[in-house]
Amino acid sequence: MSPTGGNWHLRESYTFDRNVIAEIHRAANTGVYRIRGWGAKRKLPTFDDLVFLGASMSRYPLEGYRESCGTDLVIGEGRAARPLKIDIPVTIAGMSFGSLSSQAKEALGRGASAMGTSTTSGDGGMLPEERQHSSKLVYQYLPSRYGQNPDDLRSADAIEVVVGQGAKPGGGGMLLGQKVSERVAGMRTLPAGIDQRSACRHPDWTGPDDLQIKIHELREVVDWQVPIYVKIGAARPFYDTALAVKAGADAVVVDGMQGGTAATQDVFIEHVGIPTIAAIPEAVRALRDLDMHRKSVKLIASGGIRSGADVAKALALGADAVSIGTAALIALGDNHPAHDEEYRRLGSAAGFWDDLQDGTDPAGIATQDPRLTSRLDPVIAGRRLANYLQVLTLETQTIARASGKSHISNLEPEDLAALTVEAAAMAQVPVAGTDWIPGDRRKS
Description:
Layout: H1 18-30, E1 35-38, E2 50-52, E3 73-75, E4 84-86, E5 90-92, H2 102-114, E6 119-120, H3 128-133, E7 137-141, H4 150-155, E8 158-162, E9 174-175, H5 182-188, E10 196-197, H6 208-221, E11 228-233, H7 237-246, E12 251-255, E13 261-265, H8 266-271, H9 276-289, E14 298-302, H10 308-317, E15 321-324, H11 326-332, H12 340-345, H13 370-373, H14 378-402, E16 416-418, H15 421-427
Parallel strand pairs: 5-15, 6-7, 7-8, 8-11, 11-12, 12-14, 14-15
Antiparallel strand pairs: 1-13, 2-16, 3-4, 9-10
Helix pairs in contact: 2-14, 7-9, 9-15, 10-14, 11-14
């Protein structure tokens, strides 16, 4: 009872809510910062805050069953003897063997190949099963250099120099010891069962001038055969994109803070980087300043892509393609309700499980435990991924046709409006029903 005789009304603090209090207690009890997987869980402006302005009178829509809408993309024309050609605007992001099982890596390759798109190797080197089942494989060149060798570089269809990642810009990777099996350790030339940490920066350069030298070295290793990407975490995308282009990249991958990870500090995931819808326009601005946008240098956006609507909106903001990671794992079967009982025994539930770092994934995806990995059939999982990629592509085409476009690359910011002032300012498109773009740089 209150001093005046009335009942107390419970009111939770906005600053110190029960989640904050629980984390303070956990930190005080353990003295260890929290490590987890997946991406940011805080509320952020997303593609949901943008809508398309479909065609009617001022724009003429295309008939879905009679008029085609192209989805293909070529990367590396002009520099690479073998440019990378993909049939759809969705690629699979780099996820390592170690963080994922070999079955999951194979399934990613199978699903991507079925739809004529690329998958990406990840830290720790190229897995033979992955190369075998990926018709188009991008080889990641990371600061750790784990598993790196020239033969794998030469067998790749493109090379991605990783400078940063959306879930942890400025931070290195983690692979905890419980996931470092004998095979994983052998590929990385490191002890089994011991935590492995990747460096936050490449060991042989200290700035963008060194990146230019490294890209030239890589081109010589592969005899100028394949395109070279540079991947950056979205922190300062305008300057980072401009520097990557000046260093000689054929494509720039910009990874927003909604991008996932297998393991890193929670404080990184939630407090470093900027949202994807804010990063794309900044990268586009850099490309336009260099007269490269929609030309010889391609822009690939990643971080929180979930649906064909998200793909179409990313393209309308100026990306040439998108890359998915978390969504691809969900398509394979991660966090599936079929495993809910086991997720609950782990202290979580299907749809909430984010402990990718601990190697206990009941779906057999983010684990090296043979008992669990045997549950994942790469053929079936690959088919699920292909189905998902097909839906993303069909949805993107549907929106493009409704906007009067005969190719998805013709989507543009003028096709969009924002539902919030915050999203309008970040995406640099008008608030719906107005011509107002908060902080419009084009008027400055």
